[in-house]
Amino acid sequence: MRTSRRPAGVHMDSRFRGNDDLVFGIIAIFLLHAFPAQAAEEYVPCPVCPPMVVVPDGQFVMGDAKSHIANEKPEVAVTISRRFALGRTEVSFDQWQACVDDKACPGGQDDHGWGRGARPVINIGWADANAYTDWVAKRSGLVCRLPSEAEWEYAARAGTRTAFWWGDAPGNGKANCRDCLGDKDHPYGTKPVGSLPPNPWGLHEMNGNVWEWTADCWTPDHSTAAAPASCGDKVVKGGSWYYFSPMSRAAARAKNDARTASYNIGLRVLCELP
User: Fold this and answer.
1) CA distance 100 to 112
2) Cα–Cα distance between 131 and 127 in angstroms, integer?
3) What confidence score (pLDDT) does residue 171 get?
4) CA dist., res. 41 & res. 56, Å (int)
């Protein structure tokens, strides 16, 4: 497995872990200076690379002090000091196939009969996901990788502090999860990438559809900072079509054995910008 250090542009301030007064003060400041909705700055690293969106630098509070789930606590102040590009959508089967055709990624992933094409690639392990990010890096000439947990949550929140970018309720038709589609029939399986509305920074399906691999090792809570390293269990974020909405909140997190592929897990690529 890979061994690497925390991305240089991410700073997690441990002074605020467990100090509720300071955390809530920080939240109030961040709410006053929350990023407004803005037109997404699109970025395409190479002709066969997945389309991306430029995520601005900034600050946010990771986690959820109000959650009943212990692993989402304590809240932690995080500074993202450098902007980066993140996949506009989860990587689709078609985008994955370009890597397979280039003999850089393994093929043969089962689509469970839901279809391939624009649906998110599934049944890939953590090493497979890294093979794809390495291929994007080679084709683009950039440093490309899986996002850290902090980078992922920052992008999912897109300047908001609610459970989902649109508010605290699951909504109606904004995500693909068991109780996220309102009166619409819930599909057993994934939806094509880009099917649902983007968040304020232009990123689609950060909530639901499939869990997404991150670079970080699992930690039982935020009192110990997660980091990319050699370990068995990796953090996955975003929830999926199979789970109820609490697991699709920005703060929600889960673990998965890096060696184990699943029809619930896909990926999204991050590229560092010069």
Assistant:
1) 19
2) 6
3) 83
4) 10
CA angle 257, 263, 269 (to 5 degrees): 75
Give the type of residue at 225. A
Name the band, by pLDDT with cuts 50, 70 and 90, for residue 225. confident
CA angle 177, 37, 61 (to 5 degrees): 70
Map residue 23 onto helix, strand or coil: helix
User: Is the Cβ–Cβ distance between 46 and 36 less than 8 Å?
Assistant: no
DSSP string, 198-260: --TTS---SSBSSEEEEEEEP-SSTTS---B-S-SEEEEES--TTS-GGGGSTT--EEEETT-
Query: What is the reported pLDDT for 185?
Result: 66
Dump pLDDT digits (tens) for 125-155: 999 999 999 999 999 999 999 999 999 999 9
Mean pLDDT of 51-80: 97
| Helix ranges (DSSP H) in the chain | 20-32, 93-101, 126-140, 149-157
Identify whether the C-beta of residue 238 lies closer than 8 Å to the C-beta of residue 266. no
Judge whether 180 and 208 are in contact, CB under 8 Å: yes
